[in-house]
What we know:
41 strands, 28% strand, alpha+beta, seven-stranded parallel β-sheet, TIM Barrel, 24% helix
Amino acid sequence: MAAAALTLAVTEGGFALWQGDRLLAIHDAAHPMIAVGRGVADVEMFRGNFRLSDTVSERTSLTHAKVLPQTGSGDVARVEFSRGEGRPAILSLVVQSDGLLLEAHDRAVNRCWLTFHAEPDEKIYGLGEQMSYLDLRGRVFPVWTSEPGVGRDKSTAFTQAMDEAGNAGGDYWTTNYPQPTILSSRNMALHVDTHAYCAFDFTAADSFTVECWDVPHRIETFAAAEMVDLVSTLASRFGRQPLLPEWATNGAIIGLKQGQESFARLEKMIDAGVPVSGLWCEDWVGLRITSFGKRLFWDWKWNRERYPDLYHQIARLAAKGVRFLGYVNPYLAIDGTLYQEALAKRYLALHQDEDAPYHVDFGEFDAAIVDFANPAAAEWFADRVIGQEMLDFGLSGWMADFGEYLPTDVRLFDGSDPMLAHNAWPTLWAKVNARALELRGKTGDAVFFMRAGGTDVGRYCPLLWAGDQSVDFSRHDGIGTVITAALSSGLVGNAYSHSDIGGYTSLLGNVRTAELLMRWSELAAFTPVMRTHEGNRPDENLQVDSTPELLAHFAAMTQLHADLAPYTRALCIEARDTGLPLQRPLFLHHEDDMDSDTLQTQYLYGQDLLIAPVIAEGARRWRCYLPCDATWVHLWTGMPRECGFVEVEAPFGRPPVFYRSDSRHAPLFTEIAARHVARCKALLS
């Protein structure tokens, strides 16, 4: 079905913009659609955490709009905005069938406010990967890539303490991956085509406003008859990922960083029954010990002292069907050899006022920025660093970390404004990694995963991970945020998401519990990739193999994940063909359930499985919601359940999971359940 086109209707004193029969925006002198102005930004960065403020010297509501006839092929109308009748136009708006073009006539204008219509009961989703809220109404959401922060709840003493330690506490809106794209329960979507800082204000009942520290070139609009079609359209717009390689979904990827001892430890897990698809050793480049914890040495080469026989160990793992994964990020430690190589080639970003490399403080060490605005530097990193040092050495994947740290006072090769380059940087980083795979013919075989993102990142990044959660059950930074992250990012074109099992950040005495590790393993079993991480302070935190009980539980959950591989593979093929994510909010297939208060605490895995992970400490029973336009069967008992809110037993090893009774995969689910229940009984005995 063709998307509804934009139309403009002249009204008394103004106009109305419609997308089919859906009102998009209105304008009259009392309710101007557009305001413009001038401002000066003040940006302070400390280790990826930002303080942003704006001094606005002028803000002018453009109250008068003159509607002109169609001016070109594909144009619906042209609107010239001014301060009043007979006064010169300050901004022109060209209405096209699929969006709006904006042009400021005053070069001093560098701020823009756009107001759009909203229904009082309308739900709005999107804005990239959000951690705290899936439904965005009622709050303001800035769009600026950064560290998400630790705690992310300004009302808590924990977040306040982290704020005192370098503004590191974060807030409900801080995210590695923001994207100025929203979807509405009216089956509409809107994308602001800019990399500038934006803030979406959803606090009004009948409208929302987008503030941009630039005049966006274009506002793209989309509409569909059903939400699944809208999400598929957005996936095509922002790029569909290649199929995940089967090895990445058929077993667990085990994250260890004990140097040579990692291999013996992995063998013990395999002996305990853990199906392993990959060994991920981020410390393959060596360690740097800081007050934050065990960090890596940012010189992207094999560290012979920590892994003396790595090349042959990788070959031995491959013979067993186990891949080896590493770590890389787009910065170079100034005490490393690759820094000197990049410096000699003039591939590093510079200070604005001197021809010296810009060094960023990453916490007790400095690193330089490889200038991806220079095509030669980007190609060098893809070929020389990732290609030669990683892929040629035998790595089959890696964490492609960071991307959020680009300072706003740096000088780039192409002369671009770093205030605009900042939000674009994660996508450039993804493009470098994708290029490395392309150069070695490894696209769809090797896989990298990223936390940073922005517009078009899905075109290059095959797999997201949810970043650095705290090792706890906290509302804004704990286990539950990885569900929100997967659902929100999936709506704007990212099919695959996963997380660090057990979380990552352990500070101020906050450490993992056995319960947290087990609940996180249960959640991860129903995601496309199941991967562990030892965290920033591994010696102080429980690991999945710390006790026989934890290891037995982890083995059972990884076996369950491996058993689900045929279904997961079918979902991957569906993602390739349709762009639909593997983890989906209920309303994607049950649009009448947009008002459910479980929107972000449970999800559909494909269309046929409903997962309601236990994400609260101490819970042994769990309340969840079953849509009423399908019949749902409790996976572990085989009993159909009434629709609506239900409460079920949720012992360790058996999280609340249901399947559609009419699913073609029902025989597989029944077989998997019987096998898993038998394993759980053996664990209890």
